[in-house]
Amino acid sequence: SRSEVDDRVQGHQMGADDYIIKPFEPKELVAKIESQLERSRRIHSEIIRLMQQSPPTAPEVAAPIPMTLPLTPAEEKVFWEVIQGFTNKQIGDRLFVSPRTVQTHLSNILSKLQLESRSQLIRYAFERGYRPPVAEKTEE
């Protein structure tokens, strides 16, 4: 029905990567979860690769301090976690908030920075010289 489509569209606009229609087979759920985990791993690996790259113009580009983000302290914490490739669930666990709270902060961040997606946010951050604070990196 129309409201179901609207619900799915709204879910995607809020950052959902996928949805599953009930009733569903457990096998399908497992396949979707494995697919999302693999996607997360690829994104995280790409972010690490980008962070380790040293472009020829790095000294000139990296020398100025990036502009202060127009974000609340809570949104800024989520910003740094997102650009490191963490999922909403992982961010929630790391910041001791619910994934829904993380999604709300992420939606606010995207709105304030006039971006539409998580990947655009990551690109925005790296193109403007934002790098996660060293103190927030953890060994896992």
Write a compact overview of the structure shown.
This protein is mainly α and 140 residues long. It is built from 7 helices and no strands.
Q: What descriptive keywords fit this protein?
A:
mainly alpha; single chain; Arc Repressor Mutant, subunit A; 140 residues
Secondary-structure class: mainly alpha
What is the CATH architecture descriptor?
Answer: Orthogonal Bundle
Can you give the helix content as a percent range? 55-70%
Name the CATH class: Mainly Alpha
End-to-end CA span: 44 Å
Task: Quote the average pLDDT.
Answer: 81
Shape: globular
Count up the domains.
1
Main beta sheet: none
Rg for CA atoms: 17 Å
CATH superfamily: Winged helix-like DNA-binding domain superfamily/Winged helix DNA-binding domain
Provide the β-strand percentage band. under 5%
Total count of strands: 0
